[in-house]
Structure formats: C-alpha cells, structure tokens
Specification:
The complex is a heterodimer of chains A (395) and B (423). Chain A has 395 residues and is α+β, with helices and mostly antiparallel strands. In chain A, 22% of the residues lie in helices and 31% in strands. Chain B is mainly α. In chain B, a hairpin with a 5-residue loop joins strand 1 (178-180) and strand 2. The chains are: A alpha+beta (395), B mainly alpha (423).
C-alpha cells in the first residue's frame, strides 16, 4: 500500500523508490523519523480526464515544512496537473491530500490557504500593484490598517517601494513577477505553489530571480512546491527534486543525487547528458559495489545502483564529462579504444562523438586544453573512467 | 569581396539610370493602385450615402420656397427694422408678388407655406390676392390692413420676414417642439403639438431598455461561450447567430404568432389558468412588442463583442483570485466583472446605437405606443411630404447617434487595449 511513499527526511535518508519497478523491493523500510511528520502529504493521487488514461498515476509524495521541492519533468508528464490538484482547481479521481494533518482533498481552492504564482503572473490588470497585493487580504476581511501595513511591508520585501500606485502593465516582466510573488506571500499561506514562474523571463533575469526566490525561501521559511521543465533551475534552487514522467514520480532526491545517482533510465536520460548503454550483468553484485557488465563484445566495470543478479539486463549510465581522454597508467582500471567521429567546439570545452561498443554517438566532454587542439575526426583515442562514475541500473 | 562590390555597385547603377524615381521608392504607383482599388467603393459610398446625407442636411436648413415665390417682398422686407408695421414699399412689393403668384398659380403654395408659421393666414392670403385689383397704389398699407386685421399684426410680418430667408432654423425648431411667439422670441409649441421631444425620449428609453435586456440576457451566454468545450461552442454560436440568418419577415411573423392576443403565449397562459380568457395580455403592436423583437435581433451584437473580450481574459485570473482566498462570488465581482466591463460597455453601446435608429421592427410590431423617431421621419418623408422637418429630425438623430458612436469608439479602443491580454 504505502510502499511508494517518499520519506521526507534530509538527504541522507532519502529513499529511492519512485520507480514503479522497484516499489516492491523498497517496501517495508522503517521510517526512522516518525516524529518529523510530513507537512504536506499526497497519498495515491490519481487523475484521469477521460476515465481511461491516467494523467497522474498512484502518486505518493511527502513534503516537509520549509522545504523547497521542485517537480521536474517534460511537458505532459503530469506535474502541472498535480499542481492544479494541489491548488484545488482539479479534483483527483482517487487519493488523499493532507496538509498539516488536515484533509484537503475536497476543500475548495479559496479555503486551502495555499499561495500560487502563475506562469503569466495573473496580475489583475484593472488593479494597481498595491491593490493586487492587498487582494488576498481584502478577501480575508483583514482590517484596513493592517492591510496597509502588510502591503507596505510586502512592497519593501520585493524592493518595489513607491511603485504601489502603478498598474501591472506599467511594470517590467521581472517586476511583475515580484508583485505576483508578493501577492502570493502577503497572507502567509502554508504552502506556496509556483507554476513555471520564470518561464516568461529572459535568461539573465531568470537567474537573478532564481536567487531572489531562494532568498525569500530562506528568509521567510517558506514551504515551496515549484514546477519547471528547466533542469538547471531545478538543480540550482531545490532542496529536493521530484522527476516526473508519464504521470509517475521517477525519483525524488536532493539535486546532487538526481544528477549523480539517477535511479532510473528516464532520470539518467532526462537530467543532464548521459551515455546510456545496454548490457548484461556477468557477475552478481549487491548495491554500491562494482560489478562486471558485458556491453557488446567488451566487458565494462560499473557500480551497481541496487543489487543485481547474474544475467540481468542493465543500463549503464555514464556522464560524458566523467570520461577521461588518454588516461595515464593506473588512473583508471580499464581503457577502451574508440574512434572520433565528430568534434564540436564550445569554447570552454570540446565535445567528441566517438565510435565505441558498436555505437557511433558515444559522447565525451572535455575541458578545452591547448594540448587537445589536434583532435580530429577519424583519430583513434583511448577512453577510460572510474567504475563509480559508471552506474548500472536494472533496465 | 564580390558581394561587397555588388552591393556598393547597384545603387550607383540605379542612380544613373533612374535618378529620381530610384531614390523615391515605389510609393507613388502603389498608393495610386490602392486608390484605384478603393475607387468603386468610394464612388458608391459618395453617390449612395454621402451626397444624400449632405442633401438632407441642406434640406433641413435651406428652404427657398417663399424667397423665390415672393421675389419682390424678400429683398424689400430686409430693410424693415422689425419695430412697428413695415412701410408702404413692403406692402406694395407683397401686392406685386401676390399678383404674380396668382397669375403663375403658385399662390396656393405661398399661402400654405405661410400658414405653417402663421395660423389662419392661408384664407387671408387667398382672399387678399383675389381682391388685389381694387388696390389703391397710393397707400397699400392702409388697403391691406383694411382687408384683414392680420395684415396689421407685427407677428405676421415678422413671420414673413423669417420665411423669406432661404436659410431657416424653422425645421429644427419644429423638430424640437419650439416656435416663435408673436414677439419673435423662442417659445414652446402648444402642448398638443409637442410630439417630437417626447418621441426622442421614448426612442432613448426603448433603446435603453433593449440594451439593458441584451446585457442581462447576453452576459451569461457570452460567459458560457468562453467556458464550454470547442465542439459545443460552435453549436451555441450557431444559436446566437440564428437571428442574423432569419429573414426579417419570418422573424417578425414568428413573434406575431407567439405574442398576439390569440397567440401561443396567451393561449398557453389561458390553458394553464394563469390568466382568464378576457384577460389576455397585449404583447404585440405596442411598446412591449417593439422591445421584445428588437432585443431578439440585437442580442448577437451584444454577445459577440463581449465574447471576444471574455475570451481574451486568461482563466488564470479567476484561478489566481480563488487561490488567493476569494470566494467565487467575490472573485467574480472584483476580478472577472471589471475585466469584462469594457466588453459590456462596447457591446451595450453598439446595441444602443443600432436601437436608436431602428425603423422596420417598430413599424411592423410597434403599433401606436411602440413607434420610434425613425417612424416619424419616415412618415414625414412618405406621407406628409414635409421633407424639411424630416431632414431636421434626421440630422438630430444622426447627431445623437454620432455622440454615442464617439463614446463607443473610445470604449471599443479600451476593450482591445493591451491591459486586457495581460503583459
């Protein structure tokens, strides 16, 4: 029943059982931090629009107080639908939402005490900035004097003092974004939902706003659920990232582990660039121990992400930047001879396409050093890597 | 290298070949072409619309009838100060004109035209003209005043002085139920001849009621149109546009079938026992009929502009309002409604403007109490043949519509301005 629950504890204790294939094996784990009960808890949430196709499939997710959790996934992966269910604009066809022990599943949006920041900001065009920020307070019948004080404080928080009388249309995109933030925070909601809030901004402004949102998160101790399809944003901002695909959570983890220890083939392929090789286990191995995997005609040393049986089909995951070009003796346990098929120049680094293990799209990223200036297609090179940089995932 | 050379070279070659036209690009011929393409429409509009319009404005202020039929009196009376009776030369000129008019058989027209301003003068003019042979040339004024006391009335002469002017405000005064009193000052017409102002007010009132009904009926429909799924929306649009595609006569006949005292609605109410057979309601051939049928045909003109405004409001506005803690009614009142107001105003004014000028529908189903100003204009055009008055009424109506149209274009501009669509 509760097997796919993600336990909301700091990085060390994060469980890796989002992948549906691995639910059973991860079952029965004790939850060591029972005292640290989840703040927001989603249990077996399902959503279908047509009664046949599930947009969100039996999803379980716990968020702890003060956490910055990002829902990352390609479009159509169900992350925005989940956000709409959290906000109350969509009803789950199955499952329960609990916020601080209170069942929210059938609560209408206006009683949820959740703040939401929309991608297009959704600032009310006929109201001034101050009126926009005051709106949630007026809706809550806050006394007038208090409204004035809190709006002033909110304007100070987003550094837009003196612009309270402007209309949203008179502000820049970044300023509008900050007003939308202030409006969603001014009534101190239990949770703030953000639906690709920086999607409409240009790159520079987006990075600036990432820092501002992070700072607000720290200063105010906000609990934030953040939706994005931008993996850099997800990795840079989050305490934890939940990777979505096809309506399920593939993995929930701290950003470092999402990147370095992907648990499923999808996460490995979606977050950052990876070489994905298909192979077969030659020697059985327990989790976090090296094992030998046959790939094509070669045998490769890899690190088992989970216990593996002999003869099991696995996917090898290998970051292009962790591959060593022409390693000196003893640097890596194994080297492989490859032929360069293509060299792409990126300024600070160079990417090689190599022919290896019978594939010609094996990617290698190396720092652009003067010594490498002679690299060209057709050249033979020796490639190697440390076993811990090559992870073996069960299919 | 070659590319640079070519790009440098080309202008100089062109310059040498066509020194002037090359520097001024093809603007002239293309604008000529667009004028030519527009020409048929412009010619059609000026022949069919602009020229009649100008002619109507002219008719409303320009009436040369008496100036032309009384060619001697007209210049003679200009020297009269307006105080005391005019001198003998004026009387002599009038005698000469009346004589000429009698011979030209236009005396009837003169008498009738004078009678519009001076009641009872018609018979006096005819009688005086018949007796002109007995006029003693020495003292025409005494002779005239002896014929009838009206010739000794300053009011009569003031009216003649006004009527012999080709440019006259008299039609406008009539259209506004005003007239000159015997002292030449503006005054109200007799109460039983004051009809136009009341009619203008009734026209405005009917238009306002129709607009209000359109807003009440159309707003929810436009709302539904923006929220339903696309397949259903196209069917609903079909229903909204149905009045446009129905012939006016079919539509009107249908309403007659429904609303008349032996019609479907009355029969149903009698059948249900809600009203007695003697208590059948008169729903048509009165103001009710005009309002019902006009609302029916004008409803799409309200729904369509409002729909386009509503469709441009992102659904996230309402979602944002709800997530911020506003109850649905509060969110609607404070967020959705204000955002749709430009559409309501634009659609409402469009309906109002169209309603003010409505003619056919009131003529067919309006009976007596449902007539509007356009029907009176048509009456003066077709039956009473008082084109001057019809033109004056028409110009006033036109000005009224113009004022509301200016309001409309400002509001329509507001409705499409960028703040509706967000950033």
């Amino acid at each position: 029943m509760e097997t796919q629950e993600i336990i909301a504890v700091p990085a060390v204790h994060v469980q890796d059982r989002a992948a549906s294939k691995r639910r059973r094996s991860a079952g029965g784990d004790p939850t060591p931090h029972m005292a640290d009960a989840p703040f927001l808890s989603l249990r077996e949430i399902e959503k279908s629009y047509d009664g046949i196709n599930l947009v969100v499939k039996r999803l379980c997710l716990d968020v702890r107080r003060g956490e910055f959790l990002t829902l990352l996934g390609p479009s159509g992966s169900g992350k925005t639908t989940l956000l709409m269910i959290l906000a109350g604009f969509e009803q789950p066809t199955h499952g329960v939402i609990e916020l601080a022990g209170r069942d929210l599943t059938r609560t209408p949006p206006f009683k949820r005490d959740i703040g939401m920041v929309f991608q297009n900001y959704a600032l009310f065009p006929h109201m001034t900035v101050a009126e926009n920020i005051a709106f949630p307070l007026i809706a809550r019948r806050t006394p007038k004097i208090e409204i004035a004080a809190r709006v002033a404080r909110a304007l100070g928080m987003i550094k837009l003092e003196g612009l309270g009388g402007r209309r949203p249309a008179q502000l820049s995109g970044g300023q509008q974004q900050r007003v939308a933030l202030a409006r969603a925070l001014v009534y101190e909601p239990a949770i703030v939902l953000m639906d690709e809030p920086l999607g409409a901004l240009d790159k520079q402004l987006r990075e600036h706003m990432q820092v501002e949102i992070k700072n607000l998160h720290h200063e105010l101790g906000l609990t934030v659920i953040y939706v994005t399809h931008d993996q850099d944003e997800a990795l840079a901002m989050s305490d934890r990232v939940a990777v979505f695909s096809g309506g399920i959570v593939e993995q929930v983890d701290i950003p470092k582990r999402i990147y370095e220890e992907p648990q499923t083939r999808f996460v490995a392929g979606f977050v950052g660039e990876n070489n994905l090789l298909t192979g077969m286990v030659v020697s059985a191995a327990s989790a976090a121990t090296p094992c030998r995997v046959r790939v094509g005609a070669s045998e490769v040393l890899a690190m088992a992400a989970a216990p593996l049986d002999e003869g099991q089909a696995v996917t090898l995951v290998l970051r292009p930047e962790r591959i060593v070009l022409a390693p000196y003796p003893g640097q890596v346990p194994q080297t492989h001879q490859a032929t360069i098929t293509d060299v792409s120049y990126f300024g600070d680094r160079v990417r090689l396409r190599c022919c290896l293990f019978g594939r010609d799209d094996f990617s290698v990223k190396i720092a652009n050093l003067a010594a490498l200036s002679g690299l060209a297609a057709g050249q033979q090179v020796a490639l190697g890597w440390l076993p811990q940089d090559c992870r073996a995932l069960s299919v | 290298m070659t590319a640079t050379a070519a790009s440098v070279d080309r202008p100089s070659v062109m310059g040498r070949l066509r020194p002037v036209s090359a520097r001024r690009p093809a603007l002239h011929p293309s604008s000529l072409r667009s004028w030519l393409l527009l020409a048929p429409l412009l010619i059609f509009l000026s022949l069919g619309f602009l020229i009649p319009l100008l002619r109507m404005v002219q008719l409303s202020v320009y009436d040369p009838t008496l100036r032309d039929l009384l060619p001697a009196t007209a210049p003679a009376i200009t020297s009269w100060s307006g105080e005391g009776l005019p001198g003998d030369p004026v009387y002599r000129a009038l005698a000469q004109d009346l004589k000429a008019a009698t011979e030209a058989q236009t005396i009837g027209i003169v008498a009738t035209r004078l009678n519009t301003e001076i009641s009872g003068i018609r018979s006096v003019v005819m009688r005086t003209a018949r007796r002109l042979d007995g006029l003693a040339t020495a003292a025409p004024r005494d002779w005239f005043t002896a014929q009838d006391p009206q010739w000794a009335d300053i009011g009569t002469w003031r009216a003649i002085a006004r009527l012999t002017q080709a440019i006259t405000p008299s039609h406008y005064l009539a259209a506004l139920d005003l007239t000159y009193d015997e002292n030449g000052a503006l005054a109200q017409r007799e109460p039983n001849r004051r009809i136009h102002r009341a009619l203008f007010l009734r026209t405005l009132a009917i238009s306002a009621v129709v607009t209000l009904l359109c807003i009440l009926l159309g707003y929810p429909v436009a709302c539904v149109l923006t929220t339903v799924r696309p397949a259903l929306r196209s069917y609903l649009f079909l229903l909204v546009l149905l009045p446009f595609w129905t012939s006016l006569l079919v539509r009107t006949t249908a309403w007659i079938v429904l609303l008349q005292s032996q019609g479907v609605i009355n029969d149903a109410l009698v059948g249900l026992g809600l009203i007695t057979n003697d208590g059948r309601m008169s729903l048509i051939y009165n103001m009710t009929g005009t309002i019902v049928t006009m609302t029916h045909i004008l409803l799409p003109f309200f729904i369509l502009p409002l729909y386009s405004v509503m469709a441009s409001i992102p659904p996230s506005y309402m979602q944002a309002a709800l997530s911020l803690g506003a109850r649905p009614a509060f969110a609607f009142r404070r967020v959705y409604l204000p955002c749709t107001l430009p559409g309501v105003a634009a659609g409402g004014l469009l309906v109002f403007i169209l309603a003010i000028g409505y003619y056919v529908t009131p003529a067919l189903v309006g009976g007596q109490s449902g007539q509007m100003i356009s029907n009176v204009i048509a009456f003066h055009m077709q039956s009473s043949l008082n084109w001057g008055l019809a033109s004056a009424l028409g110009v006033l109506l036109f000005a009224l519509i113009g004022v509301f149209f200016m309001l409309y274009s400002r509001l329509a501009g507001l409705a499409t301005s960028d703040w509706i669509s967000g950033s």
